[in-house]
Amino acid sequence: MRPKKVLLLVDQDEDALSILKFLLATNGYRVLEATSGKEAIAVFAATPVVDMVLAAAAMTPMGGERLVARLKRMRSYVPMAILCESGDKPSDEFAGDRWVSRSTAPAVLLDLAKVMCARKRGPRKGAWREIASQISLVST
Predict the structure, then answer these.
(1) What is the pLDDT of residues 10-40, one digit of tens each?
(2) Residue 65: inside a domain, yes or no?
(3) Is there a domain that residue 79 lies in?
(4) N or C: which terminus of the chain has fewer CB atoms within 10 Å of its end residue's CB?
(5) 93 lies in which domain range?
(6) CATH number of the domain that 126 lies in?
(7) Start-to-end C-alpha separation, the chain
(8) CA torsion, points 130, 127, 26, 99, in degrees to nearest 10?
(9) 126 pLDDT more than 70
(10) Neighbours of 12 (CB within 10 A)
(11) β-pairing verdict for 6-10 and 52-56
Protein backbone atom coordinates (compact mmCIF):
# COMPACT_ATOMS: atom_id res chain seq x y z
CA MET A 1 0.00 0.00 0.00
CA ARG A 2 1.46 3.34 -1.00
CA PRO A 3 1.61 6.09 1.63
CA LYS A 4 -0.98 8.83 1.61
CA LYS A 5 -0.01 12.25 0.31
CA VAL A 6 -0.01 14.90 3.04
CA LEU A 7 -1.80 18.20 2.37
CA LEU A 8 -1.78 21.26 4.61
CA LEU A 9 -5.01 23.25 4.35
CA VAL A 10 -5.10 26.78 5.75
CA ASP A 11 -8.30 28.82 6.02
CA GLN A 12 -9.73 30.91 8.82
CA ASP A 13 -13.25 29.99 7.65
CA GLU A 14 -13.70 26.76 9.61
CA ASP A 15 -16.75 25.68 7.56
CA ALA A 16 -14.85 25.94 4.27
CA LEU A 17 -11.87 24.20 5.88
CA SER A 18 -14.09 21.36 7.06
CA ILE A 19 -15.59 20.86 3.59
CA LEU A 20 -12.17 20.82 1.90
CA LYS A 21 -10.79 18.45 4.53
CA PHE A 22 -13.71 16.05 4.01
CA LEU A 23 -13.32 16.15 0.21
CA LEU A 24 -9.59 15.44 0.33
CA ALA A 25 -9.61 12.94 3.22
CA THR A 26 -12.34 10.82 1.61
CA ASN A 27 -10.24 10.69 -1.55
CA GLY A 28 -7.15 9.22 0.09
CA TYR A 29 -5.20 12.27 1.30
CA ARG A 30 -3.89 12.82 4.80
CA VAL A 31 -5.02 16.34 5.69
CA LEU A 32 -3.41 18.67 8.19
CA GLU A 33 -5.31 21.84 8.96
CA ALA A 34 -4.65 25.30 10.33
CA THR A 35 -6.92 28.28 10.87
CA SER A 36 -4.25 30.98 10.87
CA GLY A 37 -0.90 31.74 9.29
CA LYS A 38 0.92 31.38 12.60
CA GLU A 39 -0.63 27.97 13.22
CA ALA A 40 0.17 26.89 9.63
CA ILE A 41 3.84 27.81 10.04
CA ALA A 42 4.01 25.76 13.26
CA VAL A 43 2.34 22.73 11.64
CA PHE A 44 4.55 23.01 8.54
CA ALA A 45 7.71 23.24 10.63
CA ALA A 46 6.69 20.29 12.81
CA THR A 47 5.76 18.03 9.89
CA PRO A 48 8.78 16.76 7.95
CA VAL A 49 6.78 15.64 4.90
CA VAL A 50 4.14 17.90 3.37
CA ASP A 51 3.30 17.17 -0.25
CA MET A 52 1.18 20.28 -0.92
CA VAL A 53 -0.11 23.44 0.76
CA LEU A 54 -3.48 24.99 -0.08
CA ALA A 55 -4.05 28.33 1.66
CA ALA A 56 -6.93 30.79 1.49
CA ALA A 57 -5.99 34.19 0.06
CA ALA A 58 -8.18 36.24 2.39
CA MET A 59 -7.01 35.64 5.94
CA THR A 60 -6.19 38.05 8.73
CA PRO A 61 -3.71 39.14 9.98
CA MET A 62 -1.42 37.17 7.65
CA GLY A 63 -2.88 36.71 4.17
CA GLY A 64 -2.39 33.63 2.05
CA GLU A 65 0.26 35.25 -0.15
CA ARG A 66 2.43 36.24 2.82
CA LEU A 67 2.00 32.80 4.34
CA VAL A 68 3.02 31.02 1.15
CA ALA A 69 6.08 33.28 0.81
CA ARG A 70 7.16 32.34 4.36
CA LEU A 71 6.55 28.64 3.79
CA LYS A 72 8.44 28.74 0.46
CA ARG A 73 11.46 30.16 2.32
CA MET A 74 11.30 27.12 4.61
CA ARG A 75 10.86 24.48 1.86
CA SER A 76 10.79 25.88 -1.65
CA TYR A 77 10.23 22.48 -3.30
CA VAL A 78 6.76 21.98 -1.77
CA PRO A 79 3.98 22.91 -4.25
CA MET A 80 1.68 25.62 -2.90
CA ALA A 81 -1.60 27.01 -4.17
CA ILE A 82 -3.74 29.93 -3.08
CA LEU A 83 -7.50 29.49 -2.83
CA CYS A 84 -9.01 32.80 -3.93
CA GLU A 85 -12.29 34.53 -4.56
CA SER A 86 -13.21 34.97 -8.22
CA GLY A 87 -12.04 38.61 -8.48
CA ASP A 88 -8.68 38.22 -6.71
CA LYS A 89 -5.43 38.73 -8.60
CA PRO A 90 -1.94 37.69 -7.50
CA SER A 91 0.50 40.42 -6.56
CA ASP A 92 3.77 40.90 -8.42
CA GLU A 93 5.63 39.23 -5.54
CA PHE A 94 3.45 36.08 -5.52
CA ALA A 95 5.67 33.20 -4.37
CA GLY A 96 3.23 30.31 -4.79
CA ASP A 97 2.74 27.98 -7.69
CA ARG A 98 -0.95 28.47 -8.58
CA TRP A 99 -4.11 30.47 -7.83
CA VAL A 100 -7.30 28.41 -7.65
CA SER A 101 -10.84 29.79 -7.49
CA ARG A 102 -13.05 28.80 -4.55
CA SER A 103 -15.76 28.01 -7.10
CA THR A 104 -13.64 25.27 -8.71
CA ALA A 105 -15.50 21.97 -9.07
CA PRO A 106 -14.49 19.33 -6.49
CA ALA A 107 -13.35 16.84 -9.16
CA VAL A 108 -11.08 19.45 -10.72
CA LEU A 109 -9.68 20.41 -7.30
CA LEU A 110 -8.86 16.73 -6.69
CA ASP A 111 -7.10 16.54 -10.06
CA LEU A 112 -5.10 19.65 -9.20
CA ALA A 113 -4.04 18.14 -5.85
CA LYS A 114 -3.00 14.92 -7.60
CA VAL A 115 -0.88 16.80 -10.16
CA MET A 116 0.67 19.17 -7.63
CA CYS A 117 1.61 16.33 -5.29
CA ALA A 118 3.15 14.44 -8.21
CA ARG A 119 5.17 17.53 -9.07
CA LYS A 120 7.56 16.82 -6.18
CA ARG A 121 8.80 13.75 -8.02
CA GLY A 122 8.20 15.20 -11.49
CA PRO A 123 4.84 15.30 -13.27
CA ARG A 124 4.17 13.39 -16.42
CA LYS A 125 4.60 15.43 -19.56
CA GLY A 126 1.72 17.82 -20.23
CA ALA A 127 -0.06 17.28 -16.91
CA TRP A 128 -0.29 21.00 -16.12
CA ARG A 129 -1.90 21.70 -19.49
CA GLU A 130 -4.63 19.16 -18.78
CA ILE A 131 -5.52 20.80 -15.47
CA ALA A 132 -5.20 24.34 -16.81
CA SER A 133 -7.67 23.54 -19.57
CA GLN A 134 -10.26 22.54 -16.94
CA ILE A 135 -9.87 25.49 -14.59
CA SER A 136 -8.57 29.01 -14.96
CA LEU A 137 -5.17 29.27 -13.29
CA VAL A 138 -3.00 32.33 -13.17
CA SER A 139 0.59 31.20 -13.68
CA THR A 140 3.47 33.04 -12.15
Answers:
(1) 999 899 899 999 999 999 999 999 999 999 9
(2) yes
(3) yes
(4) N
(5) 6-134
(6) 3.40.50.2300
(7) 35
(8) -70
(9) no
(10) 16
(11) parallel
Residues 6+ apart with CB under 8 A from 90: 65, 82, 96, 99, 138, 140
Asked whether the beta carbons of 98 and 82 are under 8 A apart, the reply is: yes
- pLDDT value at residue 35: 92
Classify the C-alpha dihedral 36-101-80-30 as positive or negative: positive
Angle, alpha carbons 128-86-14 (nearest 5°) = 95
| Residue among 71, 73, 65, 70 nearest 94 (CA) | 65
pLDDT digits (tens, 9 = 90+) for 67-121: 988 998 898 889 998 888 766 666 656 656 777 887 888 888 888 888 888 866 5
Q: How many domains does the chain have?
A: 1
Residue 139 lies in a domain: no
The answer on pLDDT for 1 being more than 70 is: no
Length of the chain: 140
Q: pTM for this one?
A: 0.78
